[in-house]
Amino acid sequence: MTTIAVVEGDGIGQEVIPVARDVLALLHPEYECYPVEVGYGKWKKTGEACTADDISLLRDADAILFGAVTTPPAADYRSVVLQIRKELDLYANLRPVRGKGVDIMVVRENTEGLYSGIEWQEEDRASTLRVITRKGSERIARAACRIARERRNHLTIGNKANVIKSDVFFRDICIKTAEEEGVLYTTAFIDALTLDVLMHPDRYDVIVTTNIFGDILSDAAAYLVGGLGMLPSANIGDRHALFEPVHGSAPDIAGQGIANPVAAVRSAAMLLHHQGDARGAALIEEAIRLTAEAGIMTPDTGGKASTAEVGAAIISTLRRLTYGTCR
Ligand code: IPM
Ligand code: MN
C-alpha cells in the first residue's frame, strides 16, 4: 500500500495542500494519507517545530506532500524544511519551470553549499562556511544528467567559478560527469545566466547549480510562467521524496482564500510521476491548463477566483478527463 505523509504547515500551506490532497484522493483513492504537523504553529503550541517522532513519520511514508512553514524570528529556531531535507538526505531539488515557450528544469543541490549550517558569529563578524563536497556534487550532477537524457540532452552548469574556488570544484565535477554520461553541456556564470534565462528561456533545457544559486534562479525564473504561485518542486533522495510548492507560507495573504493552489497541485502531479503514474501526472497538468484557459485563476495570475474555486474547477475538470463525466 502507498502511504503519503501530508504536511500542511503554516499560512497558505493550510489552504493549498487540501486542494492537492483532494486531487491525489480523486486519482488514487487507495493511497493512505496521514497528516503530520510541523512548523511555526506547532512551535508556538508545543515549543518544538519538528520532533524526532515527526521525522520518523515522514521517513515511514512512500512520499511526502508538503505545504510551507513559517520561519519565526527566533535565534535558536532552525528552518524545518531545511532540517527535513538534511535528515532525509533529499539531495536533489527539481524545479520545473514550464509555460508558453518555456520548458526548463532547474536542478538545485539541496543539502550543502551555503546551507551547510556551519556558521558562527563574533563581535564584528558573522561567517557561514560554504561546503561543496565531491559526493554532493557528483550525485547532483548525475541526477541532472539522468534528467537531461530524458529531455533534450543538454545541461547548463550554473556557477561562479570566476570568483569562488568551491565553484571551480563544483563546475569541474559537473563537466566530468556530463562527459561520462554523454550529455552535452555548457557552463555559465550564474549572474549572467539568470538574466539570459529570463531573456532567452528557449535556449535552456536542464540547469544544474549549487544550493543558494538554485534557490534564487528558480524564483527569478518563475517570472516567466506567472510567478511563484505556479512552481512546484520535488526534493528527491535515494530513499525518500518530498513534494512542495516553491513558494513559502505567505503570511501576508494567509487566511484570505486567495492563494494560488496550482503550485501545490503540480507538486502532487510530480509526486504521482515519482510513484510511477505518469498518466495521472499528465492529466493533472491538463486539468490545470484547461482551468486557466477557462479564466478560472487566482488574483496573482490575473484572475478573480478564490483558492477554493480554482481547486473545485481543477478537480471537476480532472473528473471529466478521467471518467468522461462531470460527477
Ligand atoms: C525554498 C525556500 C527555502 C530555501 C527556505 C524557506 C528555507 O526559499 O524552498 O526555496 O531557502 O530553500
Ligand atoms: Mn526559495
SSE order, as H and E? EHEHHEHEEEEHEHEHEHEEHHH
Largest sheet: 10 strands, mixed
| Span between termini | 27 Å
Helical content class: 40-55%
Bound molecules: 3-isopropylmalic acid, manganese (II) ion
As residue ranges, the low-confidence spans are none
Give me the count of strands: 12
Tally of domains = 2
Structural class: alpha/beta
Q: Name the beta content range.
A: 15-25%
User: What value does the Rg take, in angstroms?
Assistant: 20 Å
Question: The CATH topology of the largest domain is what?
Answer: Isopropylmalate Dehydrogenase
The total count of helices amounts to 11
The average pLDDT score comes to: 97
Task: Write down the overall geometry.
Answer: globular
CATH architecture of the largest domain: 3-Layer(aba) Sandwich
In terms of quaternary structure, the protein is single chain
Reading side by side through the largest sheet, how are the strands ordered? 2-1-3-12-11-4-5-10-8-9
The CATH H-level homologous superfamily of the largest domain: Isopropylmalate Dehydrogenase
- Assigned CATH class of the largest domain: Alpha Beta
Tell me the layout of helices and strands.
Elements: E1 3-9, H1 13-27, E2 32-35, H2 40-46, H3 52-60, E3 63-68, H4 80-87, E4 92-99, E5 102-109, E6 119-121, E7 126-128, H5 134-150, E8 154-159, H6 165-181, E9 184-189, H7 190-199, E10 206-209, H8 211-221, E11 232-236, E12 241-245, H9 262-274, H10 278-293, H11 307-323
Parallel strand pairs: 1-2, 1-3, 3-12, 5-10, 8-9, 8-10
Antiparallel strand pairs: 4-5, 4-11, 6-7, 11-12
The structure holds 3-isopropylmalic acid and manganese (II) ion.
3-isopropylmalic acid is lined by residues 79, 81-82, 215, 246, 248.
